[in-house]
Design goal:
single chain, 344 residues, TIM Barrel, eight-stranded parallel β-barrel, two-stranded antiparallel sheet, 12 strands
Length: 344
């Protein structure tokens, strides 16, 4: 199984645009370079609109929200979005969902937050109940603790999707959410703030517990691993991008929800120190607290060829997809990177 997964490792690129209209040309370029898929995330722009544009501009790329914030929406809204993007792309859409943290859900989205793992589990079950109604004509009668969907008239029923229903991948860091991903998801999105030790010791065991709870097998689930990458066409560019990656790692490390990653290495107290600085707005000072050991555990850096080899080695045996998170780089760099990953 290890060799099979390593040989078939798919490579996804970020589809980051300042205008969704620009997603088409960029996605087409990435497809021509040899990327297997593209992903968006819930950042400065909506994660679904660029993928809708990319769907019409490509023929092979798989299109993933990596991630869309589930709790900022409801199962019915995402059922429609997932159905339509699967239809527009001809069956190439992957619905990637995450919970986000409480502060963002309540203060940024003005939505409800409680028991995130239980809520996510029910969210996916409700989503699947809606799709089952549309795909198979099953009466819609979902009654849960957080979501209730019992009304579906013919005028609102799109009918069976000719391309089938999209897979649902869930992101997780804590053990309960990781178990939910294994139990009710089709795949797992590994957070970019992770280390090989944390993945092997915490992430995969929890994911596999969820798979066992569902009575499924690991072969029925996929793992997509996002990895922070710092590379460049020359040494100066690599060092500049490594500095950008250092700042992003410091931001992640300051967040209480990601403390378990640090604790796996005995670095838990660093999270408290970084959190204090973040509340003081001292973003520039935060990166200075990161040791080279920590940076090397989280960030894969070097020339595109070195990064390609290291990414493939890092994901060997347990991941079906890898998504290099690049904070800067032109198209030549992206092309060299995907070639290096697939050649390594």
């Amino acid at each position: 199984m290890s060799n099979e997964r390593n040989a078939g490792l798919k490579v996804d690129a970020s589809l980051l645009v300042s205008n969704p209209a620009d997603a088409g040309p960029l996605a087409r370029q990435l497809e021509d370079m040899g990327y297997d898929g593209v992903y968006t995330f819930e950042g400065r722009h909506d994660p679904f609109l660029p993928l809708a544009v990319a769907a019409g501009a490509t023929s092979r790329l798989e299109l993933t929200t990596g991630i869309a914030v589930a709790f900022a929406r409801n199962p019915m809204l995402l059922a429609n979005l997932g159905y339509d993007l699967q239809l527009m792309s001809g069956g190439r859409f992957i619905l990637g969902l995450g919970s986000q943290i409480r502060a963002h859900i309540e203060k940024r989205f003005s939505a409800q937050w409680s028991q995130p793992a239980r809520r996510m589990r029910e969210f996916v079950l409700a989503l699947r109940a809606i799709w089952d109604c549309w795909q198979n004509g099953t009466p819609l009668d979902f009654r849960g603790e957080f979501y209730t969907h019992t009304l579906m008239t013919p005028v609102f029923t799109p009918g069976p999707n000719p391309h089938g229903l999209p897979p649902v991948y869930l992101a997780g860091v804590g053990p309960h959410m990781l178990e939910v991903a294994g139990e009710v998801g089709d795949g797992l999105l590994v957070h970019p703030f992770a280390t090989p030790r944390f993945i092997a010791g915490e992430v995969l065991p929890a994911f596999e517990r969820g798979i066992a709870r569902a009575g499924a097998t690991r072969a029925e689930r996929a793992v997509s691993c996002q990895v922070i990458v710092a590379t460049g066409l020359d040494r100066e560019e690599r060092e500049r991008n490594l500095a950008l990656a250092r700042g992003q790692v410091a931001f992640y490390a300051s967040t209480p929800a990601y403390r378990p990653v640090l604790e796996a290495h005995g670095w838990g107290e660093l999270q408290s120190r970084l959190n204090v600085l973040s509340k003081q707005g001292k973003w520039g000072e935060m990166g200075e607290l990161l040791s080279e050991e920590l940076l090397n555990e989280v960030v894969v850096h070097g020339s595109p060829e070195e990064v390609g080899e290291r990414l493939r080695a890092r994901c060997a045996g347990w991941a079906e997809r890898v998504s290099p998170v690049i904070y800067a780089g032109d198209m030549e760099l992206r092309e060299r990177l995907v070639r290096a990953i697939k050649r390594a």
